[in-house]
Write a structure and sequence with these properties.
The protein is an all-beta fold. It has no helices and 8 strands. The radius of gyration is 20 Å and the shape is elongated.
Length: 119
């Protein structure tokens, strides 16, 4: 998740005092169990081969992550359905890492919208 963005807002109270308010906007993660820390991962679907949620020493956030590796080529998806969102702009992001991945490996992050895949 992105770092919070902050702004200072100057103003004057009804009593004539000059004040400054520091406002910090923090993003909200709309995914359930977004960093896989809870033992219940039933809201996630992992399809394909080579990936599983597990405890790891190199998780980006916390102690658990989706680890992926296989000795042969593999492909998988990790997904979660999010419903009931208001019509507005949302940001989608994910973190991956892999020191031993060949240059031919690829990742894609997409969201279906009205039945269309958008990358």
């Amino acid at each position: 998740m992105a770092e919070p963005e902050g702004r200072s807002v100057a103003g004057v109270t009804a009593a004539g005092l000059h004040v400054t308010a520091d406002v910090v906007v923090r993003p909200v993660n709309l995914l359930r169990n977004g960093s896989f820390e809870d033992s219940d991962t039933s809201m996630w679907t992992i399809a394909g081969e080579g990936a599983a949620t597990q405890q790891t020493n190199d998780a980006f956030d916390g102690a658990r992550a989706v680890n992926f590796w296989a000795p042969e080529p593999y492909e998988f998806t990790v997904s979660q359905r999010v419903e009931g969102l208001a019509h507005r702009v949302y940001r989608i992001s994910a973190t991956t890492q892999g020191a031993d991945s060949p240059a031919t490996d690829g990742t894609a992050l997409w969201t279906p919208l009205a039945g269309v895949r958008r990358r």
